[in-house]
Amino acid sequence: MADLVPASFLTRANALFRKNLTYQRRNIWSNVRLIVIPLYLCVLLVGIQFLFDTQVNNSPDNRCGCRCIDDKNGDGKFEKRSCGLEYSSQKQALYCAFPNPQPLPPLLPIPFPKTLPESCRRTGSCPVTILVTGNNPSLGPTLSRNLLTTSFSANSSELWLRNPAINVLGTTSEPSFTSYFDPGIHSQLPIINIQPQCPPRTTFSFSFGQSPLTFQKEVRCVQGLSLWRNKSIEVNHEIFKGYQKGNHEEVINEVTAAYDLLDTDRNNFNVTIWYNSTYKTKLLERYVKLVRVPRLVNLVSNAYLQYLLGPGTKSLFEFVKEMPKLETTLHVDVASLTGPLFFTWVILLLFPVILSSLVYEKQKRLRIIMKMHGLGDGPYWMISYAYFLAISTIYVICLMIFGSAIGLKFFRVNDYSIQFIFYFLCINLQISIAFLVSSAFSKVETASVATYIYVFGSGLLGTFLFQFLMEDLSFPRCWIFIMELYPGFSLYRGLYEFSEFVSQGRRDGMKWKDFSASGMDEVFYIIIVEWFLALIATYYIDRGSLSLKDSFLFLKTPFKKSTSTQRHSLQKQGSAVSIEMENIDVTQEREKVEQLMPEPSTRYAIVCDNLKKVYPGRDGNQPKTAVQGLSIAVPSGECFGVLGPNGAGKTSFINIMTGLVKPTSGAAFVRGLDICKNMDRAYTSMGVCPQHDLLWETLTGRDHLLFYGRLKNLKGSDLTQAVEESLKSVNLFRDGVADKPAGKYSGGMKRRLSVAISLIGSPKVVYMDEPSTGLDPASRMNLWTVIKQAKKHAAIILTTHSMEEAEFLCDRLGIFVDGRLKCIGNPKELKGRYGGSYVFTMTTSSEHAQDVQMLVQDFSPNAKKIYHIGGTQKFEIPKEQVRISEVFQAVEKAKSSFKVFAWGLADTTLEDVFIKVARSAPDLNVFS
Question: Model pTM greater than 0.85?
Fold first, then answer.
């Protein structure tokens, strides 16, 4: 068969692409289950929303108050339902219509300590304290004295008509979200009038409001203190000291307010106001309650006007008033509020799928077997990336479609183009990181556990840590940016912004005009930069055959003797010993290799020169030399058999030649290509049958051969013919076996498929590691025929424990012992060289056993009895002491003296040679 041209980049990429498509078709239901996960979650969120609407949004407490009343006839037969503020409780009032909001007196928030100090118990209340500080010590105390100067009026009508604009009123009630129905006015607690001096236990009452809401309120006078402090740090210390903690209650501060006048003078009015806002939200913590600060601003403004223009100058502040509004209902979009958490989980669920797939190919060595058959790193990463990107894109598109179709505003309101680009960037970053961290894992189970911790941890940390810090305006924004460098938080931030634009009641959601203001531009930049950095890091780690753990090797102590130095010392010692013990045939092979080394010829498909492999010692053990100074040359058309006991280094030699491990020293060439420098090119003409079957469980035998055939540049009818011939040659074509998943094959069928894969495309170099293991005799003989046919146009290196297989297939044999090549030659030469005796066997009746011994002594005095049971005896006879004709004559003569049931004379078998050579090693290891 003519040499095939190596497959091009696109051809190999096409082969992997077709294999992945077939793999997906075989796993279609797994993909369906993956894609419907977003649908399940969307249905769950809709169910939660429905339950929340029924129990919370539409509950009586979250609607304007209503009452059934008699009609105008008063007969009680007909009733009508009337709704309005007059029927509302404090919670319900928030949802009522307010076409004409009533004016309300501006109130100060006054803290009420849980436990009154001893000095306050006599009056029943503590003075209301206001602190003042600033940089101008002459101006500051004056303004401090001007804050509280109005005397209290006892006339209730005057209080309502005039005093609300002048008197300082306050309340200890917690504020609501709005002032439509202010608890400070509508609660049972009295309103506090803050004055410099108060008569003991002075209380008054007044009425206010408009029909139908008219309220009678008690007003109690409380002394107010305006205290000057020289430094702002003193104010800060006093405010902090004033906090008290009750049992499961909010923190209360005894200081009502504080002013920092800064650089205020006659020409400049600059002030900072500290106010008390230590309230918890009982219903929804994300909403901010009403801040009672207008009167605080009015107080300091009046004090400054009096300083400039005299005591009679005031800026009257009569009332505060809300904007008119229609009747509203509570509607909390649970899906949007919880979207950042749940959709973070949904999108990150792709990460374990991708990483597990990559680690699975690494753990099962599927990637390396593809590489051995010619699939380069470029096609592998390109197609794998495109493959995962396609699956991920379909996944997020289905998420958007399901969410929109089912009615979730999270998807329907926000601009679809922004959503898609954001998700697209996130999945690209996710794939890149999966490629990067796959080098850190060697087992699928470990990778799965780690990634699911990452998935659920990212969502929970985003909700309970990152979102909390992000909403805290006092937290430095630079630290938010740093936290977003963590991919899980950048994903969460984008989903959070989508949620905010929906849950804040914006009907149009997030649009491109909101892109920069929302902070999404920052998230996009971070994701894009990390995406490319992850790809670059993956490229360099993969090209250098490194893993992430190798990056930390520099942390090892520099004072420890390097492993390379130990190896070099060990190699020198091993080399000397090896040369001392080499047989003449091994020496001749070494000399032939040395002649070939200056210019390795393609006539010799495989050339190894002084190849060594030393594994470093671990856990206090000495370094282990697996291959010691191996030199062989295998021409095309030859099958070279590698024999040896377990642990002799046979598999290590195959692993070196196939690129699984790098040699410690020495050189090896495959068709003139150095395996240390040009292994990628060498793979294009190589076929490998590994010791363990490396197959995809869901792909059929035909799928495997089609894939590897395409990697060998077979196309069209040539590919189809080659696949069918390969299946027929290993008896996998009939009874539909070729189209069954490889996971359902028996061990022998998998072994035959592995051999067929190694031979498809007529590779020029084939490595077979125990190819007939587990086969029945008929299948083994058929497989031997296939291998013997294949060696006509290829160089084959074959390891085996079957002497029959080695003798049938191999043109030359090399026996390994303890990592060394002990002897080399064809089976006949080895038997002639190491088998220096015949085995004579004779079976007679038991009483003639002595006669048989005397017979053997007659024609071979140095014969050695090696077996005796019943009437059967075996003797080892040195070849140089006897001729075969003499043995025949002696047996014919003995037959006339006693009855001989059976006898035989056998030459030394290959198994005998193997045992003899293996026993020459002083100590057999268990290295594999």
Answer: no
